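TA notes, week 10

Several of you asked for a full example with nothing omitted. So below is the full record: structure tokens for the whole chain, then the designed sequence directly under it. When grading your own attempts, check the secondary structure regions first.
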């Protein structure tokens, strides 16, 4: 089975919860590992030579989480075999603006260890910083799982 990593930098558990939901939806087709960037290093992921990577991006202070972007840049230095498929999703408690995620998109476009980035991403609004997700989020997550299954083929 192809290996997929899902990484997050969850502060209140929202990104972690959605990462686990995605992993559950993909585990029948892929060997999926989920972890926080606080517990793993880019080298840990590089050792697995993953086929795919899904990145959870918290929206913090009106922009994408700088720590996850830094981790992704460091992953680029550790990876020797490019990652075929990369996707990302975001969590936030703000009024959504597409430019919030722009930093992550730029990061992924610049790094050399990525062959293809999923053209679609998931955005999940939380009721507050500590969640839970707003009504309708589960349907969006399920749709994104379908998108990921098609993209990761």
């Amino acid at each position: 089975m192809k290996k997929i990593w899902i990484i997050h930098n969850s502060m209140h558990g929202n990104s972690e919860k959605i990462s686990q939901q995605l992993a559950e939806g993909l585990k029948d087709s892929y060997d999926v590992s989920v972890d926080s960037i606080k517990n793993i290093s880019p080298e840990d992921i590089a050792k697995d030579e993953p086929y795919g990577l899904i990145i959870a991006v918290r929206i913090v202070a009106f922009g994408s989480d700088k720590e996850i972007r830094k981790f992704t840049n460091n992953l680029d230095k550790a990876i020797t075999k490019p990652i075929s498929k990369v996707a990302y999703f975001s969590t936030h408690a703000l009024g959504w603006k597409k430019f919030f995620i722009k930093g992550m998109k730029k990061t992924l476009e610049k790094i050399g260890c990525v062959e293809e980035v999923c053209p679609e991403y998931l955005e999940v609004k939380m009721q507050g910083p500590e969640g839970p997700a707003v009504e309708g989020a589960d349907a969006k997550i399920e749709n994104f799982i379908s998108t990921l299954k098609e993209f990761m083929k």
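The beta strands are 3-8, 31-36, 52-60, 63-64, 83-92, 114-117, 122-125. Use that as a sanity check on your answer.
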